[in-house]
Amino acid sequence: MPTQIVILGGGxxxxxxxxxxxRRFDEDDLEIHVVDRDDRHVYQPGLLFVPFGLAQADExxxxxxxxxxxxxxxxxxxxxxxxxxxxxVHLADGSVLPYDVLVVATGSTLQPxxxxxxxxxxxxxxxxxxxxxxxxxxxxGALERFDGGRLVVNFVDMPIKCPVAPLEFAFLADWYFHERxxxxxxxxxxxxxxxxxxxxxxASTQLACLLDDKGVELVTEFNASEVxxxxxxxxxxxxxxxxFDLLVxxxxxGGAAYVERSPGLGDPLGFVPTDRATLQSARPNVFALxxxxxxxxxxxxxxxxxxxxxxxxNIERFLADEELDAGYDGHANCFIETGFHRALLIDFNYNVExxxxxxxxxAGPLPLLRESRLNHLGKLMFQWFYWHGLLPGRELPGxxxxxxxxxxxxxxxxxxxxx
Length: 419
Ligand SMILES: Cc1cc2nc3c(=O)[nH]c(=O)nc-3n(C[C@H](O)[C@H](O)[C@H](O)COP(=O)(O)OP(=O)(O)OC[C@H]3O[C@@H](n4cnc5c(N)ncnc54)[C@H](O)[C@@H]3O)c2cc1C
Hints:
The mean pLDDT is about 95. The chain is built from 7 helices and 24 strands. About 25% of the residues lie in helices and about 25% in strands. It has helices spanning about 10-25, 135-145, 165-180, 200-215, 255-260, 300-320, 375-390, and strands spanning about 5-10, 30-35, 40, 60-65, 70-75, 80-85, 90, 95-100, 100-105, 110, 125-130, 150-155, 185-190, 215-220, 225-230, 235, 240-245, 245-250, 255, 285-290, 330-340, 340-350, 355-360, 365-370. The radius of gyration is 22 Å and the shape is globular.
């Protein structure tokens, strides 16, 4: 009997893990099953561009099955629960999948209903999110109709996927209204629960300067408690209010709902406690990656990709009864679109915050923490690389789970404000 691997989730992490395993093992040795509730694989970084008409919703969605190599069984149904003690997954269509190794890759779930009033009157009229395909498409129409007024960008609380995406939205909004010739009629506000523009100090200073340069007001420590869509008010727990004509918000995130129905698998938020270096999880034969984990790194596709490399290596080692590779160091790498055809690049891990310098080496072409056109081209090219390199599980020289310090510089305190 071949060994049976069951992968929950056919998004970024589930797909690249399945394809990497299929490349490593013969079908006679390993049977691979992927479960997802639908057959629509969304290139999520593309959601940022849809509201501005720079991408269309149907251009960033492809069938999941087509992203999986031959010899992988795809189950299009929801996960109902996992019985860790029996090594079995119960599916919504009534079937049961036994496993030798389980991979949890069910990402995170948007929970707009957790914030009072968010989906009440005004939802999809003057209150939007671009974190879903439908939301991003609806916001495209709303932005086209927007002729001036106060636009507030907000995220309710961490963790969220791609924590820089709301900032990118604010930068692109500045560009978009300039292009339309109405920037002087638009007030842009960025309201964040953080105490700065970003979580990491050096990047936070840099990004706050950029918001300032672009005339975007930064409101910090704003923990949104309530949305009054009809009255156009965003209210925080400490009683502050922000008026808006248009609110673009990122709702709370939690783990997948079935995690709660699976004793021993997750934490109270539905995320899956996971070893930060090996990706092993609730049991020795259970691994997790991507947004589904509780790891203290960004919920990002790059993170999921780097984790996938260590995770597939460790499944092979687990099956061979060898010691696991503790090779994931929290490496994250992200382009931040800043508008006007420019972007920043950040590269960091659990211990090293994003630093200035060059990537991937001191002579590398991509400046770190500094706007450049090449970084913007890198951001655009990432979509091609996603479908043709990352998801198929190809080896990518120079980009891996361990961050390199080559090219990075610790700035002097007087250099920190602007580079
Ligand atoms: C607007 C936006 C911009 C982003 N920009 C970037 C960026 O520039 N760079 C970057 O690196 N990352 C970016 N990301 C983040 C990136 O897309 C995610 O971190 C990445 O997709 C996580 O992969 P994953 O496999 O963990 O989750 P996903 O790719 O979300 O996959 C999870 C899968 O699990 C399935 N699932 C969930 N529950 C169930 C269930 N009960 N039963 C069956 N299936 C289920 C879902 O249908 C989904 O297919 C962005 C995200 C957003 C929303």
